[in-house]
Each structure stands twice: as C-alpha cells, then as structure tokens.
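Troubleshooting: if your tokenizer reports a length mismatch, compare your output against this known-good record of 309 residues.
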Amino acid sequence: MIERPAPIAHGRKKWPVDLGRAKGRATLLASFVLLALAISAADAGPLSIVAAENFYGDIARQIGGADVAVTSILNSPDRDPHEFETNPSTARAFARAAVVIYNGADYDLWATKLLSALSSPPRQTIEVADLTGAKPGDNPHVWYDPDTAAKLAETLADKLALLDPSHRAGYQHRLAAFERSLKPLAEQIEALRRKNRGMPVTATEPVFGYMAAALGFEMRNAGFQRAVMNDTEPSAANIAAFENDLRSRAVKVLIYNRQTTDALTLRMRAIAQQSGIPVVGVTETEPAGEDYQQWMRSQLEAIDRALTH
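Known-good structure output:
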C-alpha cells in the first residue's frame, strides 16, 4: 500500500503552549507597564496648583515645595480685589490645574463661576470658607481667622498625597514645619489678647474682623463696616455713630482697609487722625516679599504699636 501524505492543514499552525514561558512574558509585560507609568509620572513634573488669592498660594508653596507649581491670581496689594475681572489666561490656568484653592463665602464669585464653567473640573478643589464653617452672608475674610491657615495646610497636604503618593513624606514633612512656624504667631496673638482684651476699636470694613475677635477686641460700628463691604451706603445713623466714636475718642484705634477706599472711608480716616486716634492699615492681599506668617505678624506688630503709642 502506498502511503499518501497527510493533507496540509490550512490556517496558523498551533504550537504546544509553554505555560511557564507565557507567565514569564506576562510578568515582564506588567513590569514594563509599571515602569512606563513611573516614567510618565516623573515626566509629568510638579502638580499644578492655582490659588485665587496669593496668601493661599503662598501656603500651597510652603506645603508643596518643589513638587508643586503654584499660580496665584489675585497678587497685588495695590489693587482692589473686588474689581478683578476674569480673562482668558485665568480661565486657562483653572482648566489646567490639578488643584484649585479659592476663598468661597461669595468673596471670589468669579472663581466659583469659572469652576462651574469648566468641562473637566480640577482633580481637587478646596473652598477655604468651608473649612472654617463660613457661609455666604458671613464675614468672608476667613484668612484672618488664626485657625484657617493650619486647616488649609492640613487639608492640602492630604489632597496632594492622594494625587502624588510618591511624595507623601515630603508633604507631611513640610506640613509639620509649617505648623511649627505658626506657633510664634499664636503666641503673639495670645500676648496681645492678654494685654488688650476688651479694648474698643473700630474699622472701615470687617476685613480684620476674625483677628480682632481673636485678640479680644470690642469691635464697634459693625453696621457701617458691613455696608462698606457690600458696596452699599451706610445709614445716616451708622455714619453718625462712627463719627461720634472717633471725635469722642471712644475707640483706641481705627483699622483701615488700604485696598478699598472711597470718599466716606477717607473722611473717617481723616477724622481719626484729627482726633489723635491711630490708624492701622490692613490689606486683603499678601504684600510682595512676605510670606503668610510674616504678613500676619507685621500687622499685629502695627496694632501693638498703635495701642502703646
């Protein structure tokens, strides 16, 4: 019998599977994927943080160090922050940010509107007023509350560690250093409180209100201050009470917002000066060349000098 060759099978030849070799290839592939991810993370560079106000940006730099790149939108103490208008560069910064920090409590509504308009929101957002419990209608100047900076720093360190776990230790190390740096400020506040508790003072706006409360001051003319803050005309009774406090020297210092002035607040400052009442200027924006701690301490030193002149 003549043997005929077996018919040739059409299609791809099936080789016996070497399970050990296949497993090795899978492990190698997984290693390559992990390596690629690590390289990609390294190439991504520092995390982008956008802060609506520069004092929050400064705190972000202190916590993030070289692992973050911070952009602050409101950064000039010579301009009225309430007159800020958004522009394309601000919108682009928000759109590219990994983290956005803003004040909230209706202080920076432009930031809230920008965030709601983004098609892809930032990976993390921090509304600082939420950390303090302040709501729309409350005094929004929460950065003058002595507890705010520590709350923001802790929250930010946790969020950065979630986004960038490989640098968690660095964030925690810088957080601890930041918290230590706040201790001299807390001691300064306590010393002033012991010395001046119950001291009657007044202000053109409630910018310094949370710090004044921490110092134990008796803050007068709240109705006048709120009207100015909300860009409305104070009542005749509020104006008369404010002028009387200044002319009769019923208050020991006038705290004056140097960034927002109008004819009425300028008049109150002039009356205070004529009456021999010290005027201490405060700002809503951190000055250039100072960090948050220096800014707070310099204003407290000015208050102390005014009350001991």
